[in-house]
Design goal:
It is a single chain. With 233 residues, the chain is an alpha+beta fold. The chain has one domain: 3-Layer(aba) Sandwich (L-fuculose-1-phosphate Aldolase), CATH 3.40.225. It has a seven-stranded antiparallel beta sheet, sandwiched between helices. The longest helix is centred in the last third of the chain and has 24 residues.
């Protein structure tokens, strides 16, 4: 029986997972990336606990948006329910990535948002990357991963997810997303880079202030706005 999940997208999900490792964002199996195919309504995600060196495209687990396995013999990532909640609630997502990268996780563990201190940050995230509230004991005791997704969604109640495609889950770590699996992984790479820059900036100037809105908007929109002119057509 032919797969309903596109082979090209399966390959991209596989490469998105490898991108996290190549960028040094993953130690052991501390990370995962997934991809969503809107036509079939299916999601492919890294299987739980499989070392990246052993991972192959055919190992990816394909599920529907309710989490029912459609293809694959392995168990999906333990973070699957978080990914699915983001796909269900944030229109336009084609990929989600999760890591425990050092600098971004430091902000998450400190329960501090990541302010936009300069134009490098603004090129990718239109303002502060928020931090979620802490989960309540009953939220960790039952449906923990789903509740993680729910607190992320609640954090973006008044924010545009595709303009700030990242979040810091309090005392846990970062999740990123994008129009595709590779875009989600690339946002993880950028998030870690700007988190490292922020740590160095605060070491030099503890009272550093966020960049002004006009500068943030200019840099973000020249790459991502309707009149974007960065790069080639």
């Amino acid at each position: 029986m032919a797969s309903r999940f596109p082979a090209s997208l399966r390959q991209e999900v596989y490469l998105a997972n490898l991108r996290l490792v190549e960028a040094g964002l993953v130690i052991g199996t501390w990370g995962n990336a997934s991809g969503y195919d809107a036509d079939s309504g299916l999601v492919a995600i890294k299987p739980s606990g499989i070392p990246y060196g052993d991972l192959r495209p055919e190992h990816l687990v394909v599920v529907d948006l309710d989490g029912t396995v459609a293809e694959g013999e392995l168990r999906p990532s333990s973070d699957l329910a978080t990914h699915l909640e983001l796909y269900r609630r944030f229109p336009g997502l084609g990929g989600v990535a999760h890591t425990h990268s050092t600098a971004a996780t430091a902000f998450a563990q400190a329960r501090r948002p990541l302010p936009c201190l300069g134009t490098t940050h603004a090129d990718h995230f239109r303002g502060t990357v928020p931090v979620t509230r802490e989960l309540h004991p009953e939220e960790t005791a039952s449906d923990y991963e789903l509740n993680t997704g729910r607190v992320i969604v609640a954090t973006f109640a008044h924010l545009e997810p595709l303009q700030i495609p990242a979040v810091l889950v309090a005392q846990h770590g970062p999740f990123t997303w994008g129009h595709s699996p590779l875009a989600a992984s690339e946002n993880s790479v950028v998030l870690e880079a700007v988190a490292q820059m922020a740590l160095h900036t605060y070491a030099l100037a503890a009272d550093a202030k966020p960049a002004p809105d006009h500068l943030v908007d200019r840099h973000f929109l020249r790459k991502h706005g309707p009149g974007a002119y960065y790069g080639q057509r």
